[in-house]
Amino acid sequence: MHPFSKNPQACAGNLGECKLLEHIHDWLGESTPPSPYGMGDDTAVLQQSGNLLTTDSLVYNKHFDDGAHPEAVGYKLLARNLSDIASMGGTPLHAVTAFFMPANTSLEWLEGFTRGLGACAQAYGVKIVGGDLTGTDGFLGATLTLDGIAERPLLRGRVKAGDLLYVTGNLGGSISGKHLNFIPRLKEGRQLARYKAVSGCMDITDGLGKDLPGFLSKGLAAQIDLNALPISEAAREQSGRDGRSIEEHAFCDGEDYELLFSVEPTFAEQLEGEWKSSDLTPIRRIGVAVEQNGSMVLMDRAGNPLPHWHGYEHLGKS
Fold this sequence. Notes:
Shape: globular
Number of helices: 8
Radius of gyration: 20 Å
Order of helices and strands: HEEHEHEEEHEHEHHEHEE
Largest sheet: 6 strands, mixed
Strand content: 15-25%
CATH superfamily of the largest domain: PurM-like C-terminal domain
Mean pLDDT: 90
């Protein structure tokens, strides 16, 4: 059977990523257990051992281009997986990689890529233990699978009404360089996992506009204080060039690789005090989870719906 269709309505891109994942979950049937032991979170929790397992990919001209140094691309392949482990409050352990490349792939580029990958692994204590190499007719990309361990994995979909919403670091403007040069928030994730009052966590990869609705529990909405958003200087500069608001950049640019987490309100003062006196990446309270009225998921402090800030869509459907 030919794997492609000329009918746009019959193509994967017509669904968009979230709907497509729902279909894949249904097609897999009973072979995939409920989240977090199957699909549905940043990282799967292996039921038998409590270990973590995640995978991610990079594709030429999608996640990087000729302007990126190969060492930075190799770093990014592992670092984005490390960000998933960080979001669960975990520690990374082992990785396997799969390379997809045509025969004319430059050895100089490949060496730089591999050295960047190895340097990232050494920096974060990861052992690369194997993988696969596949020749292609022009496609260049790589996939990495990473395992880890967490005593108390932090999950999505555990937020309760009244829980406060926080982020680490700054948001927006990643295309200026952060998407290739970011620090996975492993220390911050492990610290959050020590607090039982932290009800959930995820890493921000597609922008708040897309990731925050997926983070909330069913029946909840997020009331956001737009004045509290920690917006990067790069986003402010881009806003000055393209005319889009700094808030839109913070919600839509993606590849922030910061942590979004929720905290029970009675613990907020203690958390903020302890965090401020540490050497961890600064955090900012950006809003609160509230009971949902109607279909609105993202709103401002006055309860008005936010603009259609949908974040990054991998298959091109907004």
